[in-house]
Design a protein that fits this description.
Elements lengths: L2 E2 L5 E5 L6 E6 L6 H4 L6 E7 H14 L5 E7 L8 H13 L7 E6 L1 H13 L5 E6 L2 H7 L4 E6 L2 E8 L4 E5 L8 H18 L1 H9 L1 H5 L3 H21 L14 H10 L6 H18 L5 H13 L11 H9 L9 E8 L2 E7 L2 H10 L6
Parallel strand pairs: 3-10, 4-5, 4-6, 6-7, 7-10
Antiparallel strand pairs: 1-2, 2-3, 8-9, 11-12
Helix pairs in contact: 3-4, 5-6, 5-9, 6-7, 6-11, 10-11, 10-13, 11-12, 11-14
Bound molecules: nicotinamide-adenine-dinucleotide, the ligand O=C(O)C(=O)C[C@@H](O)[C@H](O)[C@H](O)COP(=O)(O)O and zinc ion (ZN).
């Protein structure tokens, strides 16, 4: 991972040998797409949704080289769009348009658009070029980087997918001006995650700069997004296919994905991750492996951004069934990402279900 702060546009490189790629972070980058992405092919499919298109599609289309053939495919807005049905519809559109193997898929939107578009790119004609233009904070700090592409199955989150890296990621922070407060907070949940698992100084910076980040001040945004992308780039470069350190990026997700799968559309991903993170922290505090002070700081920082710190009330059997579908489960055994202090977390095998259930129950909505 290298960072270049000399120009006003930051450039972080995800180091994956011949598949290395740049992340560009700055202001008003959409009009500069052609210069930032000089290798765009002749056939381009933009995957987006109506909410995002209303604000940004015309700028992106105007920025693409005039000689390109551009088709636009609209997904429905919402987590339900990460489905086999939507995936099939994009495939139909690409085939109907006679797009070849040298086409490119351009994801313009949040994590839903990016995850599905990436899976389309990974599988259309066994793989075509893919570019990420993330427009939510969550997508800018997490989902657009690292190549986890996926769609959901009624059985659970992200159960169908592939590791498939983009050719480049273009993060234009002005896109965040139109994001709702709720979706902005969802991105902050994943930003806080990086502080907990890897960088105590970054966590402290977030505590100290809550107000400017919540106000979406450009300098605070650039710092938070850049640091998040640097940490993610480093972990992905070290462990692209999640055999080791990359699993730490899953803090709170075993709980969070269970919440999302049970309550699709009511809970956003970032909200479920926030509640799941607090459960993981509580589990460790109860085991005397995380200090009460650190637990309080984690809960308070999430609350400061108006993120939920209590899980919905679900039956124990629903939790157990959903958590058993987590992709980190090995030989039927749960593996959870657990913080031992702010700045450090570990992936642990956990066989003591009653202790896990006690943490969930203590932090479910009725116990507030
Ligand atoms: N691949 C990964 O590594 C990874 C990482 C984290 C999350 N995810 C996935 O990402 C998804 C969540 O992503 P998300 O939080 O971006 O949700 P999302 O894509 O549903 O976007 C949230 C909402 O914001 C709208 N929106 C997007 N950009 C906007 C803008 N600039 N202005 C106004 N509205 C805008 C969307 O239309 C949507 O209504 C989940 O499916 C999650 O599993 C993947
Ligand atoms: O990039 C990763 O690795 C992550 O785990 C990032 C997570 O924030 C993200 O939600 C990811 O999609 C979860 O992956 P999954 O393997 O648990 O489905
Ligand atoms: Zn996530």
């Amino acid at each position: 991972m290298q960072a270049d702060n000399q120009a006003s546009t930051k450039h972080i490189q995800v180091g994956l040998a011949e598949r290395s790629y740049p992340i560009y972070i700055g202001q008003q980058l959409l009009p500069q797409l052609a210069a930032l992405l000089p290798s765009l092919p002749q056939q381009i499919c933009i995957i987006t949704n109506a909410t995002v298109a209303e604000h940004y599609l015309a700028t992106v289309q105007a920025a693409l080289p005039a000689e390109c053939t551009v088709i636009v495919h609209y997904l429905e807005d919402g987590e339900h769009a990460k489905s086999l049905t939507s995936y099939g519809a994009v495939m139909d559109a690409l085939i109907d348009a006679s797009f070849n193997r040298d086409c490119a898929i351009l994801a313009l939107g949040g994590g839903v658009v990016g995850d599905l578009a990436g899976f389309v790119a990974a599988t259309y004609q066994r793989g075509v070029d893919f570019y990420q233009i993330p427009t939510t904070l969550l997508a800018q700090v997490d989902s657009s980087v690292g190549g986890k592409t996926a769609i959901n199955h009624p059985g659970g989150k992200n159960l169908i997918g592939a590791f498939y890296q983009p050719k480049a990621v273009v993060i234009s922070i002005d896109c965040l001006n139109t994001l709702t407060p709720r979706d902005f907070a969802c991105g902050v949940a994943e930003v806080i995650k990086y502080g907990i698992i890897h960088d105590a100084a970054f966590f402290a910076w977030l505590e100290q700069n809550q107000a400017s980040l919540a106000a979406r001040a450009p300098a605070a945004l650039v710092h938070a997004i850049s640091r998040a992308c640097e940490i993610k780039a480093e972990m992905v470069a070290a462990d692209e296919r999640e055999q080791g350190v990359r699993a730490l990026l899953n803090l709170g997700h075993t709980f969070g994905h269970a919440i999302e799968a049970e309550c699709y559309e009511d809970w956003r991903h970032g909200e479920a991750v926030a509640a799941g993170t607090v459960i993981a922290a509580h589990f460790m505090q109860q085991a005397n492996e995380l200090s009460g002070a650190d637990y309080q700081r984690i809960e308070q920082l999430l609350q400061a951004f108006e993120l939920p710190v209590r899980a919905p009330l679900l039956a124990e059997s629903r939790w157990q069934q959903r958590m058993q579908r987590d992709k980190k489960v090995q030989a039927g055994q749960l593996r959870l990402v657990l913080p031992t202090r702010i700045g450090h977390a570990e992936l642990r095998k956990v066989s003591d279900w009653p202790a896990v259930w006690a943490a969930i129950a203590a932090l479910s909505e009725t116990s507030q």
